[in-house]
Design brief:
mainly alpha; HEPN_DZIP3; DZIP3-like HEPN domain-containing protein
């Protein structure tokens, strides 16, 4: 018979509170993982029609192989592009892979720096999403309110035109 462990909590306040900076981080993470993903997918599917994605990817095999050699595309992403069985499905692609394909296989530019505010091209919008996603990934779990407001506004303008 299996024994169940019982954990006792102290009688102190069991409620956990989070700071405003931690709440900002959580909200930004949700925005970047949900809404921005859909915005990137919409652009991706307009550039790479899902009905002929397989042919589009096969036509770019040499460029894609070069990206893999340069370690811009990793093995896991490669397996999504060239699955063992079946055809590639863009619904399985993450934001990083879609942005990589968009900026390397289309006429969309890749940005090395954060774009200026007046640049509202699709390329600049992708750069903003990529910048904020990287910032969240390498963050300590807190975002101050001033940065949060600016980032939130930037991302919402990209995702909800």
């Amino acid at each position: 018979m299996e024994k169940k462990k019982t954990y006792h909590r102290s009688s102190e306040n069991n409620m956990t509170t989070i700071s405003q900076e931690e709440e900002n981080f959580a909200r930004m993470s949700l925005l970047l993982s949900g809404i921005s993903h859909r915005a990137v997918r919409k652009l991706f599917d307009s550039e790479f029609d899902p009905s002929c994605l397989d042919a589009s990817i096969k036509n770019e095999y040499i460029k894609l192989k070069d990206l893999k050699i340069k370690r811009i595309i990793n093995q896991s992403q490669w397996n999504l592009l060239f699955p063992y069985k079946g055809q590639p499905d863009s619904n399985m692609f993450d934001v990083t892979l879609m942005i990589t394909l968009l900026t390397n296989l289309t006429k969309l530019n890749s940005y090395e720096k954060f774009p200026i505010a007046t640049d509202t091209t699709p390329s600049a919008d992708l750069a903003r999403i990529k910048y904020y996603r990287n910032n969240i990934a390498h963050n300590n779990g807190k975002i101050d309110s001033s940065y949060f407001s600016t980032a939130w506004e930037d991302i919402m303008e990209v995702c909800i035109p």
